[in-house]
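User: Quick one: structure for sequence A, then sequence B.

Assistant: Sequence A:
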Amino acid sequence: MNRENERAKPMVYMLLVAMLFLSMTNTLFNMPVDKIGFVAFCVIVVVLLPYRGSFRVSLLPFFIVLLSFLLSYLISIDEFEIQGFDSYLIIFFMTGIVFLIPYVTQGYRVLLQAFIISSFVYILFGVAAWCYSVLTGEVFFVKPLYGKQMADVYAAISFSTTQQVFGSIAMLNCIAIVWLRKYGIIGKPYFLFSLFISLVAIFASLNRVWLLFTPVLLLFWGGRRVLYAFLLLGIISLPVFLFYSDVMLAFGTVQSRFMMIDNLLDFWWGQEIRHVLFGRPFYVGDYFFMHGRYFTYVESGPFYLLIKFGLVGLFLVGVLSILWIGYLYKRSWFLGFFSLYYLFFVQFMTQEYLSVSFWLYWVIMFCLMAAKKYKVKEYNLA
């Protein structure tokens, strides 16, 4: 690949950074700037990046899943309501990804640069806002844990709506910089500082699913010595952990999740056969009653797909995920394991299909695979 063609013009690069940052900021303005940013990002990549590469990925599984989702809409067209339903966001993001992937795998270098910088600014602001809120008691771009009756405990969220999305973007940043550092593509000073801030962000998000994955990340990066060093640091920081122990060690969320699943299965199985197979993407209303209130939102990814796109949609997404994990595992056990953890366990415990973090995962994974294929050690990303 021609090195000159691999360099984006500064203005294009700045636009990519700005649009990626906007795509993560769905609470910064009282308008959907995250959707606008994502569309603008896709347009810039497709139209303005002059890359011609040889790295190819079959898009057929993505098209099959997308067509099955569209079929679900067609089958349930008699239930169409112009307001209220949210499943269209999956079609919106997936359509963008399908058009984006061929260009992502050709322009991976500048896209990785843009993501690392934009996500770092996003994460740094979230950590700074969290520190400010903890020290002053003011609620400033953080989420008090009212649901756990801990109004004085804050979870970092930056410009996202939930700590899960914030934690996922922080972990994606960790994955990208650790992978690039492993291959000597990123400078050590920036790497260490960015990794530290990202790990603080994951802790500040109070998100247990990513805290559980952190030892695997550290083991991949530096082996047992680094893992032992961070475990020692964790022991030294034990008082801080004990302060948040009611959050970290609470099992109420897990118990509620299984109760929710039981109720969702009852709801799904009680539908017409067409909705059992293809879902109800236009459904707006209550799913079940629990803990003294009605639930109108499905918090578990597989069950969201099951209800919105039926057994057929869930099956096809599962097949796509398994094929993708197998593809990654043959090339990197670490990225394969991370994807298994993220696509199955994390999405089971919550769901990010309606958030940009889930779709940025695909962009970053394709970029990292392209970087591995082309072995771009000659370039320094920071």
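Sequence B:
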Amino acid sequence: MSAIQTAYMDLQAIKRFSQLNINNSTFLSTHIYSFYRDICLIIYEVIETFFKEKVEMDDRIKEIRNQVHLYTKKRGANQKIFQKILKYHIDTFGSDINNLGFYLTDGKVVGSTLYSTYIFLNTGNLPDTNRMKETESKAFNLATHVGERVSILISEIEDITGGMLYADELPSREILSEEKYLCKDINHNEIFTDNNIRNTLILRLIFSLQEICDVLWLNLTYMKKFQHQIDLDYYFQIRLTTLKTDEIMDNLLNLKKHMKQEFQHWDNYFGGKVESILDDYENNMLF
């Protein structure tokens, strides 16, 4: 498959995926954020590769795309990111009340507002209780812009390929609907301390937990929910699962390498199972 064919399939898959989940409360409450990041990554790559001089792109797409990694390699930068995220939650919601949100199903955490804060950290789109209408308007405008880029890019590719990649009308869409997750708010002092190295480890593990739950939702819930799957759905399932698995494992391997003491303490709690999984991944999955 050529690069332009891959781009076209990605964009058609994004369009269908978005349509199917437009009213899906479970998806919209937490899973949307990492998939939104992936969509921005794909849009950015398509524009940069094929339409850099032709298709305009909001700078916020690049900022969100840059969060594809769950950490940064700059020395000390991960602690600064933690401090910036925590400061936002304290400044926005207060320090003496519950200021961190977690989404649960059957008593298990599947996502957190900490993750969405990370995704939108440098975009100006984070909710501000003092300027709610303004921030809501910015978020709506960005979502509209992203949707428009997908449609524009599909049309551009069909034009430059002379219609050879034109997609037949997709089957009538089903609107997937699920119950909302339970949301539990806690105070930051319940999980974070004055040890910023430990705090950074916990934050990065929360990010990986969210991505893991997103992969599980995609494979075990989303793909089994609707009646009329097509090849494009299976393609996107593999595309997103591969992308997310790479980032999850990359984050954990980086923790193992650069936060050795904290990682070892965490791994010991689980009897060495985490390191065993990572070793198996490095030996059998990486090429």
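Residues 3-284 form one domain. The beta strands are 100-105, 108-112, 182-186.

User: Thanks, that's what I needed.
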